[in-house]
What does this fold into?
Amino acid sequence: MVKVKTILARYHRAVENEFDTRQAFDRLTSAAPTHCIEEWAASIETAEANRCTDPASMDIMHSIIKTGQSLKDIQAAMLKADRVDSLTENHDGYLDWLLEGMKIEDEQ
It folds into this structure.
């Protein structure tokens, strides 16, 4: 019975977070270059096709954060790098999306 309660709690949390997640996804899609979106979609399709025989293929869905760094350290480094990049390149809003995704991931 405990597993059922846990699954139901996770389902309810997912439903509650769906709107925020959808907004973040839509912002990423609108900010990312077309070739990145195509590459991500192809990676996901391949992982899903292989998950029955190779469950580890789904690991691409997990965020990868270097150990020993806090979320705040990572965000600070990203902000610093973004400031440097925005002086020399076209700023396309990637950082905003990444930080929003990290916030959602942290809340979950």
Notes: The chain has two domains: 2-31+63-107, 34-62. The chain is about 75% helix and 0% strand. The mean pLDDT is 78.
